[in-house]
Specification:
Pathway: Cofactor biosynthesis; NAD(+) biosynthesis; deamido-NAD(+) from nicotinate D-ribonucleotide: step 1/1. Strands 3-2-1-4-5-6 form a six-stranded parallel β-sheet. It has 205 residues and is α/β, with parallel strands linked by helices. The radius of gyration is 16 Å and the shape is globular. The protein is 36% helix and 16% strand. The protein has a single domain, classed as HUPs (Rossmann fold), CATH 3.40.50.620. Helix 4 packs parallel to helix 6. Helix 2 links the parallel strand 2 and strand 3.
């Protein structure tokens, strides 16, 4: 019997380093794959999990493709053995990142998780529910995104945790860092945009 698409299959050995990339993936695109592969190498991760959200609380329901459709497209896009596509938030019964991380760290206490997010999310994370708890639960890696990086580094979250920022030469040790700890990765930029893809599909181009 096949494993349900929202569940993670397989044991996690102690010390496994896993990057968590959450989002609507509406749709998943080459930019998601690009930053995942960069994070795997730069942070010395064993895997990256894409947490395809059943419904992002900060995004409208209208225009959101069905979860099964987004999962299937994410699998086609990932195309890498170290990138696992999951909708584990449906299994966990969580909607907010802080709650998801709390349950994952409780379920897998010997796994070293790192929260991965784009610079746009670093800028807006103070709008997230219990956002400071995210920084307390797991180390955070912020990936550069076109037009957002400079503004993000001047935002509330970056300023609040300025003294806890990890340098690039410590990147491969981030997963084992005492929290709060975060790093800004100056990865090569990728032009893909889910919004642009949806607009192009809507117009038939």
């Amino acid at each position: 019997m096949a494993t349900p698409p929202h569940r993670y299959a397989g044991p996690l050995h102690a010390g496994l380093r896993i990057g968590l990339l959450g989002g609507s993936f509406n749709p998943a695109h080459a930019g998601h794959r690009h930053i995942s592969l960069y994070a795997l190498k730069a942070l010395g991760l064993d895997q990256v999990w894409w947490l395809v959200s059943p419904q992002n609380p900060l995004k409208p329901v209208r225009g959101m493709a069905p979860l099964a459709e987004r999962l299937e497209e994410a699998r086609r896009t990932a195309r890498h053995p170290a990138i696992r596509v999951t909708a584990i938030e449906r299994e966990l019964g969580t909607r907010y990142t802080a709650d998801t991380l709390a349950k994952l760290t409780l379920r897998f206490p010997k796994t070293r998780f790192v929260w991965l997010m784009g610079a746009d999310n670093l800028r807006q994370i103070p709008r997230w529910r219990h956002w400071t708890r995210i920084f307390r639960l797991v180390p955070v890696a912020v990936l550069a995104r076109p037009t957002y990086s400079m503004g993000a580094l001047g935002g509330m979250a970056a300023q609040r945790y300025a003294r806890r920022r990890v340098s690039m030469h410590e990147a491969k040790g981030l997963a084992g860092s005492k929290t709060p700890a975060w790093i800004f990765l100056r990865n090569p930029l990728h032009p893909a945009s889910a919004t642009a893809i949806r607009r192009a599909r809507a117009s038939g181009s």
